[in-house]
Amino acid sequence: MSAFMICYKIIPHYPEAHIYRVTLDITSPDENGQIFSMPTWIPGSYMVRDFAKNVVSISATSKDKPILITQIDKQTWKIAGSTGPVRVIYDLYAWDLSVRTAYLDQFRGYFNGPSVFLQVHGAESEPCFLEVCLPEGERYEHWSVATSLRKDGARQRCYCADGYFELIDHPVEIGLFESAKFQVASIPHEIVISGRHNADLPRLCSDLEQICDAQRKIFGQLPLDRYLFLVAAVGDGYGGLEHKYSTSLLCNRADLPKAKQQKISDGYRRFLGLCSHEYFHLWNVKRICPAAFVDVPLDSEVYTRLLWVFEGITSYYDELILVRAGLITAESYLELLAQTITRVARVQGRFKQTLEESSFNAWTKFYKQDENAPNAIVSYYSKGALVALSLDLKIRHESADKYSLDDVMRAFWNKYGVTKIGVPEDGFERLAVEVTGLNLHSFFQSYVRGTEDPPLHEQLARQGVNLELRQMKDQSDLGGFATSSCQHESLLTLGVKFLTGVDEAKIQQVFDGGAAQQAGISAGDELVAVDGIKCTAKNIDALVAVGSTEVSLNIHLFRRDELLLIQVQPKAAPADTCNLSYTTDSTSEMISNRCRWLQIDE
Known about the structure:
Layout: E1 6-14, E2 19-26, E3 35-37, E4 55-62, E5 65-67, E6 69-73, E7 76-79, E8 86-93, E9 102-104, E10 108-111, E11 119-120, E12 128-132, E13 144-147, E14 150-151, E15 158-161, H1 164-167, E16 172-175, E17 177-184, E18 187-194, H2 201-219, E19 227-234, E20 239-242, E21 246-252, H3 266-280, H4 307-324, H5 330-345, H6 355-360, H7 362-366, H8 373-376, H9 382-398, H10 405-417, H11 427-436, H12 441-447, H13 456-461, E22 465-471, E23 480-481, E24 492-493, E25 496-498, E26 505-510, H14 515-519, E27 526-530, E28 533-534, H15 540-545, E29 553-559, E30 562-568, E31 571-572, E32 575-582, H16 588-598
Parallel strand pairs: 1-12, 18-19, 19-21, 23-32
Antiparallel strand pairs: 1-2, 2-8, 3-7, 3-11, 4-5, 4-8, 6-7, 9-10, 10-16, 12-15, 13-16, 14-15, 17-18, 20-21, 22-32, 24-31, 25-26, 26-27, 27-28, 27-29, 29-30
Helix pairs in contact: 2-3, 3-4, 4-5, 4-9, 5-9, 10-11
């Protein structure tokens, strides 16, 4: 064992006030003055979060005597030189119910390492030890700890890591929770659920096992000895964050499967897709990663144009895996695919920002979206998924089904994941060409470095699937799978999105080229009357629909505290809602293509 040791102890010190107390012991600090810092961001979530803002107090001692600790920037501290061991004690405020930071109350505790553990500069590769304590008091005597960190011998709630970056890649759940175990290729997996719920854990384990095994088959191996799903069940929440040996998930408790519930509900399907997405990341981003993310610094932004590969391709596979695993039908998968196509089709920003630009500017644009986001940016998740689909279908068609995107991903793993070599910025494209032998330059030029829509109409047609873009019925219409072509009455629209969950007709976003934008209506405006009739979130669509493209509507609205009258000439809703259906004249070749793509039996 190294003579240089770093030991952390984290204590839920004051749960009612959401305060963790962390003790950091260093055996051999820098004699010239040891520097510490708190990361500004967490891998997998590309936004500066400034975790140091949650430090409430900090002090240091050496040989039980106080020593000077000085803050030198927003996230960094330095202690005076010392010839002996140093102890740093700091309190942290933890009240963020998400998968990215830290949370604590008298019912539950949770934290991600970057948000709670100071980084000891110059000692990032030294062994780290962690003791997780329970709060004091009788009410906490039955609390437990769940984490994928390696146990430190037989000591209770004590863990170890080979260095700082390993330490912070294992989130920790503390409290009362339920757990269940299953195996994938003889590798132990566990799911832990905190929060009130009545989930059918055996059903959940069975479904997750099928998802995990279907992904293992793509890459050819499962590169771990354990895996943990940490799930927080809440009334209204959704999110996930990947780690090498675990994932943190936030879900609606109503989305979890109930006992004797045979059908997969929309909510449970969404939850399984989230689990599938984060599990796929154990290969694609946690072990295969951009060269820029190797030994990544956590004190400032790190840039790559490849996030569409790591998030977009993962988003393509997360739902595809559900049908391949036999958990949902092909029609259910096509419904989800139609909704993704709809989301992208409704974003005019896709004609202004490329996938590479979306990836590169995630820090300032994707993670900091404002009311103009649909007009200015495109998601490297959703459009990335469609480009991945298009690439898969292109490879299958032009190689006469000799190759698919599965082959590219398997080679991607062997070349960059197994070897632990960072992916160069052109690495994925070059590998796709190398594996398939196809000329893919124009594909990447048009759909990755350019702003064109991928040719999904013709590509899906070869699978016996018809893609139809139509007008939306109302703002709840997300698109989906249809048994036949659907015709709808022409709908008039203002070209806006209203805030949901409120009674007022308050505008959240105004879309490029729409009637509202041309009339000067803006995000934040609250519509109160249309042609003298009071409007609300419930009746605004109906009031606009009875208008005409030839006659202007008189709309009264509040902008801040001023009442304005604006004349608006409504427009026909754009054809931006996707229906997918089976073509009525599907040939046996089309059906065979679809079965090979989805890996199903017709």
